[in-house]
Design a protein that fits this description.
49% helix, 8 strands, alpha/beta, binds adenosine monophosphate, five-stranded parallel beta sheet
Length: 210
């Protein structure tokens, strides 16, 4: 099964895609995580991506497409995969179709959340350096600095600061609208109400792919 999770920053794509990939044994591929890995390791790709990510802009298509093509072509996804954060432009969607050849995307799950709620979520989002688990400050005991799951330090993503969040949403919204059109035409898109509990969203997603 080849799935694409579509949604604006903060919609819960990462949380849901990771849960589902563990449940049904699909490879989890997150373009944002891959860029952050390159940033942390100061690779040439990381240095290139840094200037875009730091401003809340999209990394150029050719760079992003090359990175994802390499990942998919590694051939270690025999049961399929869940793509989180890719494609983010129609050019990337066309490139994905080419990369996949005869084994095209089966379903696209669009997790819809209002802009107000996205801003609230991103402003309070914390992540674990070690196990990558995302949290919201409102759901943690006051003054928690460590991950309740593994004890490592929690941190706020640099691009979750209010000015950068504004730019990310501003840049991503028109692109996502075009992608919704692209995948609706192919009858692959299912819209999921992302403003529910994690468990409710999980259930809706499970129904959509069953
Ligand atoms: P994310 O973790 O998915 O929110 O992505 C973090 C940042 O990585 C984005 O704001 C972009 O700068 C960059 N990025 C991730 N995925 C893509 C993509 N498909 N195309 C271009 N830039 C991306």
């Amino acid at each position: 099964m080849r799935l694409v999770f579509l949604g604006l920053a903060g919609a819960g794509k990462g949380t849901q895609a990771q849960l589902l990939s563990e449940q049904i044994g699909l490879a989890y591929i997150s373009s944002g995580d891959m860029f952050r890995f390159h940033l942390a390791n100061n690779t040439t790709l990381g240095q290139l991506a840094k200037s875009y990510m730091g401003k809340g802009d999209l990394v150029p298509d050719d760079v992003t497409i090359g990175m994802i093509a390499d990942r998919i072509n590694q051939g270690d996804t025999p049961n399929g995969f869940i793509l989180d954060g890719f494609p983010r432009t129609v050019a990337q969607a066309h490139a994905l179709d080419k990369i996949l050849g005869s084994e095209q995307v089966d379903k696209v799950l669009y997790i819809k959340v209002s802009e107000e709620e996205l801003v609230r979520r991103l402003a309070g989002r914390l992540g674990c350096h070690h196990c990558n688990t995302p949290y919201h400050v409102d759901s943690l005991p006051a003054d928690t600095h460590e991950c309740p799951k593994c004890g490592s330090e929690l941190h706020q993503r640099q691009d979750d600061q209010p000015d950068i969040v504004k730019q990310r949403l501003h840049v991503q919204w028109p692109e996502i609208t075009k992608l919704i059109g692209y995948y609706t035409k192919q009858s692959k898109l299912t819209e999921i109400n992302g403003e529910q509990t994690v468990e409710q969203v999980q259930r809706e997603l499970a129904e959509a792919i069953s």
